[in-house]
């Protein structure tokens, strides 16, 4: 075939991307890359009780022939009405949010939710004026990077790195540097934040909500790891409802990443708009995941699973990973972001003589997958120097794999500081 003549959207996707790199690495492991210690992509752990619950429920639904309609019919484009009702009631009961089925849309995963949201909000309007999504904190989720079809549609404010204790720090939103002018279409934060594992404080969320209200723009909150489910947070956090909120949930980190279920909660006009876009792209979404999970939300079994299984499971994994870093990194100049939630450690090797991209390559050659820090800069013209000294390490894998990986990371970082070749420390 002759060379394709691409549209500007074709050009937008015709390049390497961090998200693709991450997903390719996951694919490589999936294809049988047993030799890899996978501390890279965002696959959740198999939490046994959760896995067990979904397997049992699938068998029950299948035995009762309840899945026939799932396989054999197009469901309604906003998502199954009975699931949306159950989900809205769950949010009313757990969070006190005044929402109904009309405030809810099921999508094919949060990634799809963000694709739709960013593109209906950012870009040129009828007058030709450009508007952008502002990430008030940075580093931010790698997956936002390529979502906006308008090239200058994303912008970000670098967070302040605050030392908190020996070998510990945390990011805070730099409200003084936050510039919300008429070009800003919406604010967007992940909470807990991927990659740092930080959780924006309630005070920061109050301030962001107030700013969004004052500027009459939405505040998009990405709850992929957050409350009330999957509940991978290690301290209390709240999110009171406000008219400007658009909250994106996902069933992925609950244990169903393969079923691709995202849930957007927002005002009905926003939901209507997104439903139109979803219908244009997909006609409707796959309802297997929502049907499978419905009983969890209805029976409040979910709260039980979160409190007794999911949160303690990841808290243990986080504590274990922190202890391993403190053991293997002795003598190195490192700082860990205080782990507040999600499934990652964000590790800062101060004055690292090589960039995180090079460290990623060296580690991959040694069979360890991580994500280099510079990729978590959606909206910044370039990553900060500090981000290029950071890596993201997932602790979703079994502790023995995490330990082997962290030991090799320590060796490679030491070799870099001692200017020795990779693998020689
Ligand atoms: N948001 C964050 C912060 C994530 O980490 C991820 C996936 O890793 C997503 C959104 C996308 O989730 P989903 O699997 O629902 O598309």
What does this structure look like?
With 425 residues, the protein is of the alpha/beta class. 39% of the residues lie in helices and 16% in strands. It has helices at residues 8-13, 18-30, 48-63, 68-72, 81-95, 110-121, 202-215, 268-282, 288-299, 301-328, 356-365, 399-417, and strands at residues 37-38, 104-107, 123-124, 130-135, 154-156, 160-165, 168-172, 184-190, 219-222, 245-250, 262-265, 334-337, 344-349, 368-369, 371-372, 390-394. The strands form three sheets. Strands 2, 3, 4, 5, 8, 9, 10 and 11 form an eight-stranded mixed beta sheet that branches. Strands 6-7-12-13-16-15 form a six-stranded mixed beta sheet. A hairpin with a 6-residue loop joins strand 12 and strand 13 (344-349). Helix 5 (81-95) runs parallel beside helix 9 and helix 10 packs parallel to helix 12 (399-417).
């Amino acid at each position: 075939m002759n060379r394709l003549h691409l549209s500007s959207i074709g050009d937008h996707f015709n390049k390497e991307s961090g998200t693709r790199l991450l997903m390719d690495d996951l694919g490589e492991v999936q294809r049988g890359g047993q030799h890899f210690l996978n501390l890279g992509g965002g696959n959740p752990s198999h939490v046994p009780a959760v896995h067990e619950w979904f397997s049992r429920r699938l068998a029950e639904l299948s035995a009762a022939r309840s899945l026939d309609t799932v396989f054999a019919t197009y469901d309604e484009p906003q998502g199954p009405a009975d699931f949306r009702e159950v989900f809205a009631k769950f949010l009313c009961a757990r969070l006190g949010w005044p929402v109904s089925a009309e405030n809810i849309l099921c999508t094919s995963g949060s990634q799809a939710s963000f694709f739709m949201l960013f593109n209906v909000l950012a870009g040129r309007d009828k007058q030709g004026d450009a508007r952008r999504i502002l990430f008030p904190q940075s580093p931010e989720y790698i997956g936002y990077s390529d979502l906006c079809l308008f090239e200058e549609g994303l912008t970000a404010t670098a967070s302040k790195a605050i030392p908190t204790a020996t070998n510990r720090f945390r990011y805070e939103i730099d409200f003084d540097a936050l510039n919300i002018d008429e070009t800003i279409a919406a604010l967007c934060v992940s909470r807990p934040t991927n990659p740092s594992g930080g959780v924006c404080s309630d005070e920061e969320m109050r301030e962001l909500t107030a700013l969004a209200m004052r500027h009459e723009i939405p505040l998009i909150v990405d709850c992929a790891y957050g409350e009330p489910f999957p509940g991978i947070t290690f301290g209390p956090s709240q999110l009171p409802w406000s008219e400007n909120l658009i909250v994106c949930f996902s069933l992925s980190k609950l244990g169903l990443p393969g079923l691709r279920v995202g849930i957007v909660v927002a005002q009905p006009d926003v939901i209507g708009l997104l439903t139109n876009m979803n219908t244009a792209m997909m006609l409707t979404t796959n309802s297997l995941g929502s049907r499978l999970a419905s009983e969890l939300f209805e029976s409040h079994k979910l709260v039980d699973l979160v409190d007794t299984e999911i949160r303690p499971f990841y808290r243990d994994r986080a504590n274990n990973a922190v202890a391993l870093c403190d053991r293997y990194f002795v003598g190195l100049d490192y700082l860990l972001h205080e782990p507040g939630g999600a499934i990652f450690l964000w590790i800062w090797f101060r004055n690292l003589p090589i960039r995180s991209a090079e460290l990623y390559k060296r580690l991959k050659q040694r069979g360890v997958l991580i994500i280099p820090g510079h990729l978590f800069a959606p909206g910044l013209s370039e990553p900060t120097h500090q981000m290029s000294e950071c890596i993201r390490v997932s602790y979703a894998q079994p502790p023995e794999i995490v330990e082997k990986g962290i030991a090799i990371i320590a060796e490679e970082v030491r070799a870099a500081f001692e200017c020795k070749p990779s693998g020689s420390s």
